[in-house]
Amino acid sequence: RAKEDGGNGYRFFTSEMNTLASDRLEMESGLRRALARGEFEVYYQPKLNLADGCITGAEALLRWRHPQRGLVSPGEFIPILEETGLIEQVGSWVLKTVCTQIRSWQEADSLPPLVIAVNLSGRQLQRSNLAATIADILEETGMDPRFLELEVTESVLMHDPQCAVDILMQIRNKGILHIDVDDFGTGYSSLSYLKQFPIDCLKLDKSFVDGLPHDEDDIAISQAVIAMAHSLRLTVIAEGVEKEEQLAFLRDNGCDIIQGYIISPPVPAHAFARLVQARANSTTAPP
Ligand code: C2E
Ligand code: MG
Ligand code: MG
Ligand code: MG
């Protein structure tokens, strides 16, 4: 279309395209080296059980410590990892890192049992050997599968629901009991598939939590998701809880678990461990 706008438009357009393309290439080659150079890190964001005020575990979130740019957030580089296929290696690295971390927390014996969730991308789920890869990592790290949780977004599940059912079943057969539907409400779930997926939790997307407790649509959607999840015997986690009034609404409306800056942003492993200990030692349980 730029070409039709005339000569100048065309030139402007291509130079902008070139910048974008070279940024992108630079990112890509940086990412190819990042694993070998040890530039990836895993951060942990606590999940808080509203019934007893205890931290039940965390979500593991990938970070890239770029030598020049500092900490880069996954929104910028996960899509590139996906497109290039690098996500398979990096995804395995995340699983291995998390399993090793959980084992070392368990061995140190200073923390209550924690369940840690790892995000799986669409590309990972498309691999027929995903369940075997996970089983290998569990064995290699000596990790009890009950303490590993997996998150898959609603849109990834619905991309090829029958294939997702099969792969998730295989994963479940490896002893992984916690599988969450991430960003719930932003995809197009077919309720008949929701019933068939071997899942145990829905994560209410942050975009619905944002408007609580004032926006009428967000109120209606959150209440409907909580009611539906509970009648399907699923747990509900609310994502992106930032305000006291959102927390109060979610607690009053029967939401089970919350995650968000109001408890803590994602933090490095040692900081997460300290946070759990501080909470366990304090007598006042509710947030
Ligand atoms: P997600 O799985 O939905 O993770 C939740 C995101 O919300 C995280 O962003 C988290 O930092 C952010 N968040 C949590 N609480 C709050 C809050 O109160 N306010 C705000 N504004 N944000 C909050 P993050 O870490 O940037 O990750 C973005 C996405 O990247 C994740 O969304 C997930 O889809 C993907 N991702 C992260 N790590 C991995 C990974 O290891 N593998 C794969 N495949 N995807 C990952
Ligand atoms: Mg997630
Ligand atoms: Mg999410
Ligand atoms: Mg989200």
From TrEMBL:
Domain EAL residues, every copy: 24-280
Domain of life of the organism encoding this protein: Bacteria
Name of the molecule in the record: EAL domain-containing protein
Species this protein is from: Vogesella fluminis
Portion of the parent chain present: 627 to 913 of 913
